[in-house]
């Protein structure tokens, strides 16, 4: 079994998708660098940088890491594919994730998790789970 550099043992629990952000996390997660088309609104692009670190605030287990946005006031997007297709028809779909804010979010900053399907080579949002600032 792979051991993270900090000694945290990856779980033996099996699930269609489970992430513990071990040292090889970048093989599974890909940052987006997409740019919004000019529609007359403010133009923006996903320019934010990502890292995997232990939390500074609300520490948990030693060696337990998570995704961290590294730039304030920047658009961030990152994605990971499920290892195999999931068909939730007729079955409950449970999605659990944890957000540990390491600093206060400013007005209009929101984090959200989106589950996408790909049709005709274009992503389509199937479910959106927002996490608004407290």
Characteristic key phrases:
single chain; 25% strand; 134 residues; mainly beta; 0% helix; two-stranded antiparallel sheet
Task: Outline the structure in words.
The chain is globular, with a radius of gyration of 17 Å. The chain has strands at residues 29-31, 50-53, 66-69, 78-80, 111-119, 122-131. The protein contains no helices and six strands. By secondary structure, the protein is mainly beta. A hairpin with a 2-residue loop joins β5 (111-119) and β6 (122-131). The strands form three sheets. The protein has a two-stranded antiparallel sheet. It has a two-stranded antiparallel sheet with strand order 2-3. The protein starts with 28 loop residues before the first strand and ends with a strand.
Number of helices: 0
Q: What share of the residues does DSSP label as strand, in percent?
A: 15-25%
Q: What is the share of helical residues?
A: under 10%
* Number of DSSP E strands: 6
H/E element string? Answer: EEEEEE
Class by helix and strand content? mainly beta
Shape: globular
Rounded to the nearest angstrom, the radius of gyration is 17 Å
Strand order of the largest sheet: 1-4
Distance between the termini: 39 Å
Mean pLDDT: 76
Major β-sheet profile = 2 strands, antiparallel
Low-confidence stretches: none
Question: Summarize this, please?
Answer:
The chain has 134 residues and is mostly beta strands.
């Amino acid at each position: 079994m792979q051991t993270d550099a900090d000694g945290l043992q990856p779980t033996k629990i099996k699930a269609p998708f489970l992430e513990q952000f071990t040292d090889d996390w970048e093989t599974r997660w890909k940052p987006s660098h997409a740019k919004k088309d000019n529609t007359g609104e403010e133009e923006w692009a996903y320019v934010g940088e990502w890292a995997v670190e232990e939390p500074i605030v609300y520490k948990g287990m030693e060696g337990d890491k998570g995704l961290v946005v590294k730039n304030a006031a920047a658009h961030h997007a990152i994605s990971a594919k499920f290892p195999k297709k999931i068909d939730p028809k007729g079955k409950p779909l449970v999605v659990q994730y944890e957000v540990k804010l390491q600093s206060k979010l400013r007005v209009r900053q929101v984090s959200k998790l989106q589950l996408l399907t790909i049709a005709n080579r274009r992503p389509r949002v199937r479910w959106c789970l927002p996490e608004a600032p407290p």
